[in-house]
Write a sequence for this structure.
């Protein structure tokens, strides 16, 4: 029997569960002529994908003329992610994401990924993350100071604002002008909705027609590219030196160092009214590379990486936090435990990077929210050569899909998977989670380079907010995931309730009611 949830039912591993050592390969039922399963996937993607494990371990889904293979078993997903030369970044989602992100670290093909990773790695060394954490703490505290008791917030928007403030502060030393930051977020939302539509319903020629939707997409994309180009041009032309992520990126060279000094081993190495034309061309990856191995990033490479860091840095962390506050409001006992921890650790002051090791429960809360609602809920790969998956031959150019949302609801890996249970991530329990079952940041050499950055920001933000505020929905309501390129709760209205005493003493936990 499946596991009921807000978005559907995740079956327990499919028919192969009854036959150890065998794989079941099948085709999803319910396809229609011409479109196949595209309408079902577009209308109710989470519910549709969550129903697929009941049909097999590897399930074919038809999207118009294309066929996509959904890997439902964690072992198959691990096989895909640990062999990036055979299963390269590609497929409808990545092909359309490149319209927004170019060939940055997230979207570049494997043949240029090593260089991209080396160039970006100095930005994410442990010492740099520690420096960024100081900026994060300052920006988070400044953002929270602007809240007022009784104010109703859209928490999703508020977390986007906060994360944009943090991300731009870390990237460029100073936050974007608020009006420009809001424009960037609006353009990103329009562009990423267009990306999902083009990925799920891949009818290429239709997207060149001058429809209102296509025009909105083209305008948003052109504006984003223009803003990023302006930021890079201003930084290149400016005489001042900066100690921020963009400076590190622009000075990086292909040997993993920087143009101005020797760096230690990279983190993780061990284990306008006038815009350029919409439809900015995307050169092949090889034309984006600097002509010599140890030269720094070209302007185009810098553009693509900065766009990648903005999108990933803002949306992913913001949505993880929005889901976290939704879950805490619905589970007051877990909220009280979190309040106890932050009250003990912080004693009424803002969080600092040195507090992170003692904010263990806060980290588990964020991890569990990422399990239940992973922002990167579905991703694709494309085979570069003939290969076999689940005993089935895949031809070169086959598209393979995996869904972290589906994997994270596996009742074998996560008993009672629809229950919000941060204690799953206590050391004595987390060790029992099978390898490959928990993938909020992917795995292998294409694992998110900013996973530590994201968790640091999320834990600091959660501690800073819950030390002073309780966020409560004004009325009972059902929150359903909104799957676009990332998984969002949509508008999330909540009221700010002040926890701290007027004399500035430590915040006290107070009873709460689930919505």
């Amino acid at each position: 029997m499946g596991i009921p949830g807000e978005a559907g039912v995740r079956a327990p591993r499919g028919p192969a569960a009854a036959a150890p050592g065998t794989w079941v390969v099948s085709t999803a039922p319910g396809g229609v002529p011409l479109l196949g399963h595209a309408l079902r996937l577009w209308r109710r993607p989470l519910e549709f994908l969550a129903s697929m494990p009941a049909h097999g371990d590897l399930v074919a889904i038809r999207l118009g003329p294309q066929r996509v293979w959904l890997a439902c078993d964690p072992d198959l997903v691990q096989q895909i992610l640990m062999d990036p030369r055979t299963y390269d970044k590609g497929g409808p989602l990545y092909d359309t994401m490149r319209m927004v992100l170019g060939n940055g670290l997230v979207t570049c093909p494997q043949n240029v990924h090593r260089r991209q990773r080396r160039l970006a790695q100095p930005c994410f060394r442990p010492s740099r993350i520690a420096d960024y954490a100081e900026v994060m703490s300052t920006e988070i505290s400044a953002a929270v100071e602007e809240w007022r008791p009784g104010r109703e917030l859209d928490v999703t928007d508020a977390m986007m604002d906060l994360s944009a403030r943090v991300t731009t502060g870390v990237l460029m030393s100073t936050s974007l002008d608020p009006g420009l930051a809001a424009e960037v977020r609006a353009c990103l939302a329009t562009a990423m909705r267009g990306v999902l539509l083009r990925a799920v319903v891949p009818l290429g020629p239709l997207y060149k027609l001058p429809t209102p939707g296509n025009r909105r997409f083209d305008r948003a994309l052109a504006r984003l590219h223009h803003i990023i180009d302006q930021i890079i041009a201003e930084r290149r032309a400016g005489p001042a030196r900066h100690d921020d992520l963009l400076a590190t990126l622009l000075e990086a060279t292909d040997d993993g160092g920087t143009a101005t000094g020797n760096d230690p081993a990279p983190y993780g190495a061990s284990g306008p009214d006038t815009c350029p034309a919409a439809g900015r061309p995307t050169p092949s990856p090889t034309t984006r590379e600097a002509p010599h191995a140890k030269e720094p990033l070209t302007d185009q490479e810098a553009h693509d990486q900065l766009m990648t860091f903005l999108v990933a840095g803002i949306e992913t962390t913001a949505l993880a936090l929005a889901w976290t506050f939704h879950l805490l409001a619905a589970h007051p006992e877990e909220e009280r435990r979190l309040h106890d921890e932050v009250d003990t650790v912080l004693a009424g002051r803002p969080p600092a990077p040195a507090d992170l090791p003692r904010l263990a429960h806060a980290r588990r809360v964020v991890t569990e929210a990422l399990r239940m609602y992973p922002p990167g809920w579905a991703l694709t790969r494309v085979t570069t050569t003939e290969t076999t998956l689940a005993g089935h031959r895949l031809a070169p150019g086959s598209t393979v899909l995996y869904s972290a949302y589906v994997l994270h609801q596996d009742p074998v890996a996560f008993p009672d998977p629809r229950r919000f249970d941060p204690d799953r991530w206590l050391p004595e329990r987390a060790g029992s989670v099978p390898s490959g079952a928990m993938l909020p940041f992917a795995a292998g050499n294409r694992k998110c380079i900013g996973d530590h950055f994201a968790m640091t920001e999320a834990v600091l933000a959660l501690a800073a907010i819950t030390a002073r505020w309780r966020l409560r929905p004004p009325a009972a309501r059902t929150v359903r995931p909104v799957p676009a390129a990332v998984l969002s709760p949509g508008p999330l209205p909540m009221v700010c309730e002040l926890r701290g005493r007027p004399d500035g003493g430590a915040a006290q936990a107070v009873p709460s009611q689930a919505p």
